[in-house]
Design goal:
The complex is a heterodimer of chains A (773) and B (89). By secondary structure, chain A is of the alpha+beta class. Chain A has four domains: 43-148 and 226-317, Aldehyde Oxidoreductase, domain 3; 149-225 and 321-438, Aldehyde Oxidoreductase, domain 4 (2-Layer Sandwich), CATH 3.30.365.10; 440-476 and 624-773, Aldehyde Oxidoreductase, domain 4 (2-Layer Sandwich), CATH 3.30.365.10; 478-618, Aldehyde oxidase/xanthine dehydrogenase, molybdopterin binding domain (Aldehyde Oxidoreductase, domain 4, 2-Layer Sandwich). Chain A has 19 helices and 28 strands. In chain A, strands 3-7-1-14-11-12-13 form a seven-stranded mixed sheet. In chain A, a hairpin with a 5-residue loop joins strand 15 and strand 16. Chain B is 17% helix and 24% strand. Chain B has helices at 27-37, 42-45; strands at 2-5, 19-22, 57-61, 64-65, 79-84. Chain B starts with a strand and ends in a 5-residue tail after the last strand. The chains are: A alpha+beta (773), B alpha+beta (89). The A-B interface holds A 90-93, 99-100, 174-178, 197-200, 282-284, 286, 356, 358-359, 362-363, 389-393, 434-439, 475-479, 539, 541-544, 619-622, 731 and B 5, 7-10, 12-13, 18, 44, 47-48, 52, 54-57, 60, 62-68, 79, 81-89.
Chain lengths: 773, 89
């Protein structure tokens, strides 16, 4: 296995496969319906599981009587949280990079002691059919003591707020730890504030004194769902010999394995998690909801069990992103230099600690050079589903506040919005408000690409039309990843990778291998391995896969290449160093008669030494951040309040686009989700904490009829820490849209929309308020 | 010596100092030496076994998020930050 070598830059070279957009290997399966998703596994004797959920947003569970359900004909098992061990409340790193408070996660999967949101799972039933199981859940008697719910972070921070967790660790502690629970006898303030931290740089007070222009504003955003098409689904089979196999749709089969093993108190070696195709995740399928329930039902019934959520359960019982309230104050000199910034970010964590406020605060001003700053972040538990990751978690909300403030500041200064940003770029080595130096990324190049684009240079005409621009910064992740290559006797190469394929990773990984070996992409046969057939690979998330698993594939392919050289040398009875490998042809460096191609050597691999197999496990540093610049034109219908997107252009530094069509798709997908977040999407609750719009009829996501073509500009400033210059691309395109659209609406009607969604009713109210002035 | 940036909430343990020059060729040695200078700080940076960083905490060395944590190397002129880890979606 070859070792990771930092600062290998090949991006300035010509590539054969990298940079093309071949047809995906799994395309035929997906368009013909052959592809198997989470709910498509069916096993002999399989039962169907259904979950009983809390009708209350906040209640003590005084007792659960499952006797009638257990006696119901066709029922084989009933479980509650009493059926699995109480998981430690300590934060743990599962030794392979996955960090969680498993106690909270366990209580999110099945409530223990308290129901903390409407839809919180209380018990589950396995029966001969889904209908029988559902009927039996209605026979479970739960005695609740209903409590007053807390539905917003601001309410949750009030001194008299109802408390979700009696022993939540006090924020008086200087520890950076996200909230955990204290020991029973520990003194603690009763609080819903799970975490609070801040950053200081320079002298912010003096910075504002020196500022010629100051802008202050507060924005709010509502919880929105990731809106993936495929609900969570899992089939678990716990056999009599103690082996547990789980088939499910997730962003990480190793997370499924590790979480389930921890919840059930069994070794990970007892569990095999098989990744099925995934019908969207966007972060939410990076944690487990149904797998441990299916497993426990299977153990108890002695039969395989399928648990599949309904759309209502997805909305009510799985994580949306956080609702937020963010305040910012920016100061600049009259010649347009940012010199001071202050911000307070308050994020709803849902029922358990751990909103993405840490990412929100660190990404909020990542792209700017601001010498004096004070940023404060607060994480608050509320009676809503536990917030889950959603594409650049935390950053879209903070960018909405920051980038609309930047627009206001630019206007006050009389400087064009894009120029104002160019004037304040944090170039490599500039200290960020959060402390570390700015890493290398093509921010200037991406802004310049928009400035040079036809959209930017075309005048927008028409009444009530406006143009807005915003930027977004996101800290891409890396992590452990594995790949395995097996050369077949016909010269094809079987590739097993550890990353579930969400954004086209089979093709992108195969392209890394094809590029190294000089083979056609159709000769590489990629598949995603289960937890027994490939090394640990962290979740498909954090815009990490093409970087980290790409590195693993690159290294494994280099090993295959070396083995092919050794086989040729053996056949010709010459030293390895006399063999040259070029475009899948091996030849003697000076004797043109000695020449064999990849397929010819593959056909002779057994007699020349046996199978050619290579694997690689990596944890590569240097993913680098990502940067996006979005430009949007809107038209506001002042009679109905509807905002129409007329034109949208999204530019992004991809480092190097391995498969440009996939990169384009990621950018378009992120922009579209951001447009939905900006204009329509929100969780609507009544005063008792019941979600009122838990269906796609009432939860309004954009469709193709709502949108123009999203034009993309892929900027390639090679990341020096990847062999082809890759930089993660999947998340940052959701960061700028809300601010860009808000800025465009202001340009159209002269009103700053500071609260999401900017839905027709809010636009009309704002117009009426403006008329009434 | 490497320069360690102290998170604001831990500055009560460092007499208000925001940056501290500390000897150490690895993050582990750096933290051990920091503990000698300012007793008690290690409890907030390391887990109970004191073999790993507190889960949820990232160490950033010269602008790069470390993937090795306590085992990562630190140079004589390195700048080291401890920040909340950023999780992706």
């Amino acid at each position: 296995m070859l070792e990771y070598k930092p600062n290998t830059v090949l991006s300035n070279e010509e590539f054969d496969t990298v940079g093309s957009s071949p047809i995906r290997h799994d395309g035929a399966d997906k368009v013909t319906g052959r592809a198997k998703y989470g709910a498509d596994t069916n096993l002999p004797g399989m039962l169907y599981g259904k979950i009983l959920r809390s009708p209350h947003a906040h209640a003590v569970i005084k007792s659960v009587d499952t006797s009638a359900a257990q006696a119901h004909p066709g029922v084989h098992a009933v479980i509650t949280s009493a059926d699995w061990p109480e998981t430690s409340m300590k934060l743990v790193d599962l030794a392979e990079g996955s960090i969680h408070n498993l106690g909270f996660l366990s209580m999110n999967v099945l409530a223990r002691g308290k129901a903390l949101y409407k839809g919180h799972a209380i018990a589950a039933v396995a029966a001969v059919s889904a209908h029988v199981a559902e009927e039996a859940t209605k026979l479970i008697k739960v005695d609740y003591e209903v409590l007053k719910p807390v539905l917003t972070a601001i309410d949750g921070m009030k001194p008299d707020a109802p408390i979700l967790h009696e022993r939540l660790a006090s924020v008086a502690s200087p520890a950076l730890r996200p909230g955990g629970l204290l020991e029973d006898n520990a003194d603690s303030l009763r609080t819903n504030i799970a975490n609070e931290f801040e950053f200081n740089l320079g002298d912010v007070e003096q910075g504002f004194k020196d500022a010629d222009v100051i802008v202050e504003k507060t924005t709010t955003t509502q919880a929105v769902h990731q809106g993936y098409i495929e609900p969570q689904a899992a089939v678990a089979e716990w056999t009599a010999d103690g082996k547990l196999t789980i088939f499910s749709s997730s962003q990480g089969q190793f997370t499924v394995r590790d979480h389930t093993a921890r919840f059930l108190g069994i070794p990970v070696g007892q569990v095999k998690a098989v990744p099925m195709e995934i019908g969207g995740g966007f972060g939410a399928k990076g944690i487990t909801y149904v797998e441990p329930i299916a497993a426990l039902l299977s153990q108890k019934s002695g039969r395989p069990v399928k648990v599949q959520l309904s759309r209502i359960e997805v909305f009510e019982g799985t994580g949306p992103t956080s609702g937020t309230q963010i305040s910012v104050k920016l100061g600049a000199t009259k010649d347009g230099k940012l010199i001071a910034a202050e911000a307070e970010l308050i994020y709803e964590a849902g029922a358990f600690p751990g909103s993405p406020v840490g990412a929100g605060i660190q990404c909020m001003m990542g792209q700017y050079d601001i010498p004096n700053g004070h940023l404060k972040a607060i994480d608050v538990v509320v009676n809503r589903p536990k917030a889950a990751a959603y594409r650049a978690p935390g950053a879209p909300a903070s960018a909405f506040c920051m980038e609309t403030a930047m627009d206001e500041l630019a206007e006050k200064l009389g400087i064009e919005a894009l120029e104002f940003r160019l004037m304040n770029i944090a170039s490599e080595g500039v200290r960020r408000v959060t402390g570390p130096m700015t890493p290398f990324v093509g921010y200037t190049e991406t802004l310049q690409a928009v400035k040079d684009h036809q959209h930017y240079n075309t005048k927008l005409e028409g009444k009530k039309r406006g143009r807005g621009l915003a930027t977004g910064w996101w800290a891409n992740n890396s992590g452990p990843a594995s790949a395995l290559l097996v050369v077949n006797s016909d010269g094809t190469v079987s590739l097993t990778e550890g990353s579930p394929d969400i954004g086209g990773s089979r093709a992108a990984m195969a392209m890394h291998v094809a590029e190294v070996l000089g083979l056609p992409i159709t000769d590489i046969k990629p598949q995603v391995g289960d937890t027994d057939s490939i090394g640990f690979t962290s979740n498909t998330g954090g815009s990490s896969v093409t970087f980290k698993t790409g590195w693993a594939c690159y290294n494994a392919a280099q090993s295959v290449k070396q083995q092919m050289v050794e086989r040729a040398a053996k056949i010709w009875e010459i030293p390895d160093t006399d063999v040259e490998y070029k475009e899948a042809v091996l030849q003697h460096i000076s004797d043109p008669e000695l020449k064999l191609n990849f397929k010819q050597i593959a056909a002779r691999m057994i007699p020349t030494g046996g199978p050619i197999v290579a694997s690689a496990g990596v944890n590569p540093p240097g993913p680098g951040p990502s940067i996006a610049v979005h430009l949007v034109d809107v038209e506001v219908d002042t009679d109905t309040g509807k905002v129409e997107i007329l034109r949208y252009t999204a530019a992004q530094d991809a480092g190097k686009a391995i498969h440009p069509a996939y990169v384009e798709g990621q950018i378009q997908g992120g922009a579209v989700q951001g447009i939905g977040w900006a204009l329509n999407e929100e969780y609507v609750y009544d005063d008792e904490g019941a979600l009122l719009n838990s269906s796609f009829l009432d939860y309004r996501m954009p469709t193709s009829l709502d949108l123009p073509m999203i034009d993309t500009i892929i900027v390639e400033v090679a990341n020096p820490a990847h062999p082809y210059g890759v930089r993660g691309v999947g998340e940052v395109p959701i960061v700028p849209p809300m601010a860009a659209i808000s800025n465009a609406i202001y340009d159209a009607i002269g009103i700053r929309m500071n609260d999401l969604p900017m839905s027709p009713d809010k636009i009309l109210e704002a117009l009426w308020a403006e008329e009434g002035k | 010596m490497a320069e360690v940036w102290i998170p604001p909430k831990l500055q009560q343990l460092t007499d208000g100092k925001q940056q501290i020059q500390v000897e150490g060729t690895t993050v582990r040695r750096l933290i051990n030496n920091l503990e000698l200078l300012h007793p008690g700080i290690k409890d907030f940076l390391c887990d109970e076994m004191q073999e790993d960083l507190v889960p949820g905490l990232a160490v950033i060395i010269d602008g790069e998020v470390s993937l090795l944590g306590m085992l990562d190397k630190v140079k004589e002129d390195s700048e080291v930050h401890f920040l909340p880890a950023i999780g992706g979606g």
